[in-house]
Amino acid sequence: MEKHPVYEIKKFNCKPNENDLYINDFKSHLIHHDFIENTHSHNFYLLVFFTLGTGLHIVDFDQFEIKPGSFYILKPGQVHSWQLSEEIDGYIAFYSQEIYNLYFGNKRIKEYPFFRSSKNSPEILLNETQARELKKYFDILIDENIKNEYKKLDKLLNTIDSILIELARIYISLNAHTVHPYNLKINALENLLDNHFKQEKAASFYADKMNVSLKHLNRICKDVLNITLTDFIYGKIILESKRLISVEGKPINEVANELGFANYSYYTKVFKKYTGLTPQNFKKQSHF
């Protein structure tokens, strides 16, 4: 199976000194970079705001319907592809974690609520008023990006941050995304899981690392995510399995070994439990 690409910002920029930031209207972007419709991932943050047209956006194997007002916020490593109508238009912006964190000092990009958990949806549907207000910010980005004026980078980054603030306010206001007092615990759990999931799959390991009881950590997962701690751990493993099988095209036995499963049949059993398919059948059915 063909391995799918992981893009860097410099893939989209002509100027070598602008490899941490990219801004464009979507129609112009697509003219020169139509390869983005195929499955890929990237090592930067991505904002996409659609103002015209329709289509489908597949993100980490979940499908979203594109329409005017659709806004997508993607983190590094997420796998996605597009199916777009001919009249599609809007705005697109890329920025690296490094440029954001360096510029804003103690403020960190991951503090925004839509970046706190992998369970958060990458899609926000804007109403007409919200879309109109956010369009003003993107028009500023497009206009400023064309110019070469004093403190251009400052204005671009501050405008991007203003967009993130407006999106965070919308995100928090939605009932489905109410900020929960346990969110910091979930964020800490995700950081641990990112570092240890290939070696450690026992729920007790993560509870011990966080200095909380297994019962309490399981209750946090149920309260915030409505799943058990074990399901949260294996959800990460299954998503990574899908990426390795479909996106990187690795043989299934290599995927099992990379994810720390010494017993191949047990890996197959776990995969089928959480997906309803064997890894082999998933690979056959995958459109990535």
Please provide a brief summary of the model:
With 288 residues, this protein is α+β, with helices and mostly antiparallel strands. The protein has helices at 26-32, 97-104, 128-146, 152-173, 183-196, 203-209, 214-225, 229-247, 252-258, 264-275, 279-285; strands at 6-7, 21-25, 41-42, 45-52, 55-59, 62-66, 70-74, 80-84, 89-95, 123-125.
- Largest beta sheet: strand ordering: 2-9-4-7-10
Strand content: 15-25%
Could you please say which CATH topology of the largest domain applies here? Jelly Rolls
Average pLDDT reading: 88
Described by strand count, sense and barrel closure, the largest sheet is: 5 strands, antiparallel
Shape descriptor reads globular
What fraction, in percent, of the residue positions are helical?
A: 40-55%
- Look at the structure and name the CATH superfamily of the largest domain: Regulatory protein AraC
Annotation keywords:
about 290 residues, alpha+beta, Jelly Rolls, Arc Repressor Mutant, subunit A, 2 domains, five-stranded antiparallel sheet, three-stranded antiparallel sheet, 11 helices, 10 strands, globular
